[in-house]
Amino acid sequence: MSDVIPAIKKRKLSTSESIYLVEVLKGMAITMGHVIKNIIGELKGQSTFDTMEYPEVRKPVNDRFKGAHRLTTRPDGKYKCVACMCCSTACPAKCISIVAGEDADDPIEKYPVRFDIDMLRCIYCGFCVEACPKDAIRMDTRIYEINAFSRQDMIHTRDYMRDLMAGDKPEAEQWYRENPQHSPEGFLGEVPPVIP
Amino acid sequence: MSETMLTVILALVKCVFSVAFVMQIVPLLIWAERKGAAYIQDRPGPNRAHILGVRAGGLIHTLPDVFKLITKEDVVPSHVFRPLWALAPIISMSVALVTFSVVPWGDQILIPAEIAEKYLGTTGPLAVKLQVADIDGGLLYILAMTSLGVYGIMLAGWSSNNKFSLLGGLRSAAQMVSYELAMGMGVVAMFMTYGTTRLDEIMQIQAESILNWGVLLSPPVGVIAFVLFWVAAFAECNRNPFDLPEGEAELVAGYHTEYSSLRFALFFMAEYANMVVASSVTATLFFGGYNIPFVNGAMLRENIDLVLMAIGLGGGLFFLFATSVAYGRRKDPFYAAMDAFKGPRPNKLAPTSGLNGLLYRALHDDTLRQHEWKIFTAIWAGAALAHFGLIGLGAMKIASGMPLLTEIIVFVTQLNAFVVKVLFGCWMFIWVRWTLPRFRYDQLMDLGWKYMLPIGLVNILLAAVWLLIDANAMRLYAAIP
User: Fold this and answer.
1) Best residue in B42, B332, B372, B438 to probe A by mutation, most A CBs within 10 Å?
2) Of B338, B436, B447, the CB nearest to A27
3) Does any CB of chain B come closer than 8 Å to the CB of residue A188?
4) Cα distance from A149 to chain B (closest Cα, Å)?
5) Which of A126, B48, B120, B281 suits B273 as a labelling partner, its CA being 20 to 30 A distant?
6) CA of A196, closest CA in chain B: separation in Å?
């Protein structure tokens, strides 16, 4: 191993460069060019910026983007979930807690009385979705703004996750209708495929 | 009213005006700094804070900024030397404000005899100099005051009892001393050429002709002196590329690391106040101060109606253009879509009822945002109309019959010329800051001592040679108005 560090030769400045002033003026001309370009764009109302004005303008997320969890329902409005605990078992972050209850309806047998996901612990790995035998939990909302003012509010409950997309205000529905490529599967009314 | 009373009252009014002048430009500069930086870096810049949806291009941001600084906790670290620590920001700010007192911001106002005798109790007409202190050593006073500015930073750095702050203070002391010299050399050459250090006389010399402006005097002495002075002014204001005292990469925040709340605000404002003062001194020394090229005060007074019409036409056309731009933007598809879009998930946690709801709505309701450009259209159309009204007033020869009105118009016109020059200088500060990288410390010292000081000395020699050739060198071009 050689410990000789090759010296980097400094380029000699030309006369005009060593006075600085000319080069400074050149640099200032470049920055002023940007200012003028942007002011003209602003006056015309045509944005010359690459910046996205975030809450109003959003970058479309990838088709494979997951986002927050939601719970799917049967056509009759009941949860598809049968409280089998597969998801909470598969969860590496141990953030899903389910309390099972007995369903009066015979072929279903069990339903979730509580189904809480602690979003502060969730690592969004998607194992719960993989583990679910009933297609009851999905990560297809593409919602990435998961926030709250308290830790308690960061625990997404059963009903919250059911209504996450469905009950969410007409504006959202309108937006998803205009941008169907971003719409989560089954959000715009079609019944999600039933897995027997 | 006695003569003394009048003098005192006039002095007070002028003091208030000069402090207000500097302090009014500061928030504007903070806005210009943010917006300019954004535009240089191809970003939209501040455009969020709004009053009921009117954002005024980010100008509103200054309000919450000030509110934040005032309401923040004033942290006093236990390890500081309290008396000096508390004094430092005050020194920084007051030195900046005090320097401005010798800068004239307009020709003198001549209050005609009949009005002055009737209302002010003087004998004969009253001439009011638009300058707080007209002292003989005006230029020397500026040099003295700017070098006092280093105390603020040095004391802040030392009394903070903190390595980085101390280093920042040290650097700033060394830097200020080095560049003080270069600045002094530039000024010496200038007052040799002018033959006086009194700013009032300097202004009168420059009023004679545009070719008498400092930069053009006994070439190339004026130009070299200007470059020296301007570069040194950057160093004195601790602005990029000479902002080593702050050097956030190395020194946290330099001398003001330990300051918070309003004390920090004082340092922050002092930086901008220094910029205003430096550009106004530069404008006064080198660019004719309040003088408008090719038009001096006497000409303004003679053709006051024409001046009024010219102001009306120029301002009217400008605001007409602004109106047309705003009107064109009123239904902008891009911005309208942006404004109308509420997003797929409105804030679920927003309070809707009670006092909280009311407050939330007052602060966050931006439904007016879509009408922002319509509001601007109305305002600017009004301004354009008012300016076109001035043409009518000029045509009716109203001003020429009223000497006091004439004086006021002349004052406003010249003040505007001065403000334009000062603001351009301030924009230069901002422009350079976002263009150039910071100097390395040894490069900074090299530039100050090895280049600027010798150039300054040679410049003084040149000025002396000019004086030998022609004792009235500066009046060389006085033939052209």
Assistant:
1) B42
2) B436
3) no
4) 8
5) B48
6) 32
Asked if residue A196 belongs to a domain, the reply is no
Looking at the fold, whether A37 and A93 belong to one and the same domain comes out as no
Instruction: Give the domain extent around A28.
Output: 16-50
Query: How would DSSP label each residue in A40-109?
Result: HHHHHT--------TTTS-PPPPTT---S-EE-B-TTS-BS-----HHHHH-TT--EEEEEEE-SSTTT-
CA proximity to B332, closest of B367, B286, B369: B369
Put simply, the answer to whether A24 touches B432 (Cβ < 8 Å) is yes
Are the beta carbons of B42 and A34 separated by less than 8 Å?
yes
Cα separation of A129 and A67, whole Å?
12
Q: Is residue A94 part of a domain?
A: yes
Q: How many domains does chain A have?
A: 2
- Residue with the bigger pLDDT between B316 and A48: it is B316
Q: What pLDDT, on a 0 to 100 scale, did the predictor assign at position A168?
A: 47
- Does one domain contain both A78 and A127? yes
**Interface ipTM:** 0.80
Q: Based on the fold, state whether residues A38 and A112 are members of the same structural domain.
A: no
Residue of A nearest to B349 (CA): A148
Using an 8 Å CB-CB cutoff, list chain B residues near A153. 349
- Give domain limits for chain B: 69-291+402-479
Asked if A56 is an interface residue toward chain B (Cβ–Cβ < 8 A), one would say yes
User: Residue B346: its chain A contacts at CB < 8 A?
Assistant: 169, 171
Q: Which tokens belong to B111?
A: 């209050």
CA trace torsion B420, B424, B430, B432 (10° rounding): 180
Kindly list the averaged pLDDT for each block of 10 residues, start to end, along chain B of length 481: 80 89 89 91 84 78 87 86 88 89 84 76 77 85 86 87 84 86 88 83 81 80 90 86 72 78 87 90 88 78 82 90 84 56 50 71 64 84 90 78 80 88 92 88 86 91 82 50 41
Q: What global pTM score does this model have?
A: 0.80
Return the number of other C-beta atoms located less than 10 Å from residue B105's C-beta: 24
